[in-house]
Amino acid sequence: MEFFPPALERMTEQFARLPGVGYKTAQRLAFFMLSLPVEEVEAFSQAMLHAKRTIALCPFCQNLTEGDGPCPICADKKRDENVICVVADPKDVIALERSREFRGRYHVLHGVISPMNHVGPDDLYIKSLIERVSKEEIQEVIMATNPDTEGEATAMYLSRLLKPFGVRVTRLAYGVPVGGHLEYADDATLMRALEGRREM
Fold it and tell me: CA quadruple 94, 121, 54, 136: dihedral positive or negative?
């Protein structure tokens, strides 16, 4: 027996396709959308359609941009053109930009090497990174992939590919977080913290 109209069920099913959204949350979102005025629902759907139609990849760094030109970071002449920070996803660019510390450029791979998920080097934007390093005067490439198995494997793979170009390849330091306590840190984190220590 159906409790709700099929249109509501279809909307719930679509929301449930979003990552991290279960059926109950999807149902709440569907009911919330029904409670909005038609104008707000139209504005919501138009914003999604507009983003889908206009957002593309930056021809230089593969970050998200609007239109076919460079992203705002690549277009910024004040950024250091000699340093590239390699990240897995566009979300990582946002995280690093929040720190306001990095003033170089980025390169977004759009994933990491993961044999378990059938993602190999050819599935990522590695070729365009190699082209940038070979053509531009890059002095340093910072590997900022996550410190998990796939992130480490991707960083190691890229460092081997970049070695022949004589570019300095570095890795983000990992360790005990600010405000953290040593007694709660795992062995791998403590090992990274010791390896990444620096002079005061």
Answer: positive
Whole-structure pTM value: 0.83
Give the C-alpha separation, 163 to 24, whole Å: 50
Average pLDDT, the chain: 90
What's the token pair of residue 180? 């953290």
pLDDT tens string 32-71 = 999 999 999 999 999 999 999 999 999 999 999 998 889 9
What is the C-alpha to C-alpha distance for residues 199 and 11, in angstroms, rounded to an integer? 57
CB 55 within 8 A of CB 68: no
In this structure, what token pair is assigned to residue 165?
Answer: 């170009």
In the chain, what are the domains? 78-174+183-195 (3.40.1360.10)
Q: Write down the residue that tokens 């494997």 correspond to.
A: 153
58 contact partners, CB below 8 Å, separation of at least 6: 64, 65, 70, 71, 74
